[in-house]
Amino acid sequence: MKTLFFILTLLMSTPLYAQELLIATTLSTDATAHIIEQWQKAHPDISVKTLNRTSTSIERLVNSPFSGKIDLIISSSPMLLSHLKTNNMLSPITTIPDESQQLVPNILRQYAAAFAISGSGVLSNKEYLSQHQLPIPQNWQDLTLPDYYGMLSISTPSRSDTTHIMIESLLQEFGWQKGWQMIMEIGGNIGTISSRSFGVVDKINSDLSIIGITIDNYAIVNNNEKLVFHRFPHNIPIPTFITVLAQSQHKDSAQQFVQYLLSPAGQLAVSHPNTGKYPVIQLGDELSNYYEQAEFINTEHIHYDTLLKRQELVRQLFDIAITFRLEQLKDTWKLLHDKEKKLGKQLDEVRQLLTKMPIDEDQSLHYPNNNQDLDLYTEYQINAIEWKNFFQNQNQMAMKQLENL
């Protein structure tokens, strides 16, 4: 609440003129700096300021009495924007090219434009791994290797919608059961959990972590020569969306900014190495990342209906299964890996206990997704207790089997 009060006080005390736009964004400052700089050169009469916050904080601000202070939202979170659309908080965008609109979830069509895309992958400290004669991870499966115990950094889906999209893409690629098996095993290697996706890169830069799961634009703009980034082989494009708020006091200027981002000049600004993103409009082949972008654009997209349908479920399960019991999870997997190494074989029965989920894929597609409803919120509270007990019991059974070996 103190943070919200500070933001609202700042907005009230900062004079906003007819030709000044305020953008609330979940992106880091570096991700938008070059684009805004190029806009200012072309439109010196309309200044742009950004307010960098989490999606939860932005949604709280938009639903406050001061929402009219904010003109635009830039975010990679379809969850945030779909909530706002459902509550009639978004204004239609005048013209959106097909290349942009095809990247937008059905619920947001005509209300949001995709102006950039990113990929996801693994950022690693290659210098450290080389010194310790460890391979550089390049995919999700690699991250389950016991040698990476305590080296991984990730942000939680409940705080980072970008991480949420990466986790959901894993579940869609491998299936609910196999996907969660990998996530739980990867959880045993996690050393730190960051509150923001770009915080993962910060931790690796600061030598607080060795390996991080992140999107490419935070990794690519990094100039640390001892680090290396590998995109996941099945690399779904993660669009960056822009939308105009219904209560914006400067809708014409806001629409003008959106059209700039979708114009050749705006897309050229997006393609600059300082942003680390790809534009959604096909580039000319004289630009360095033309072929990489062309292949990326044609990659299969995430199934948005599934993502949005079970968004609350995935967040809750990740936190209850991993975030809130990380130390226990790490200890148990460490003991399992030590036993397997000593015995020279994989202990499948113990692994099944540690990776079993309290809900199956069919149930995941019919899970209540709106905790603002009192009955559904009460149901969530009951489920949270049941799931906490479930994982605790599974862990106890696994520990008992390991101790008897």
From TrEMBL:
PANTHER family on file: PHOSPHOGLYCERATE TRANSPORT REGULATORY PROTEIN PGTC (PTHR30006:SF25), THIAMINE-BINDING PERIPLASMIC PROTEIN-RELATED (PTHR30006)
Keyword Iron-sulfur: no
This protein's encoding gene: pgtC
Top-rank taxon: Bacteria
Pfam family of the protein (one): SBP_bac_6
UniProt keyword DNA-binding present: no
Protein name: Phosphoglycerate transport regulator PgtC
Keywords from the named record: Signal
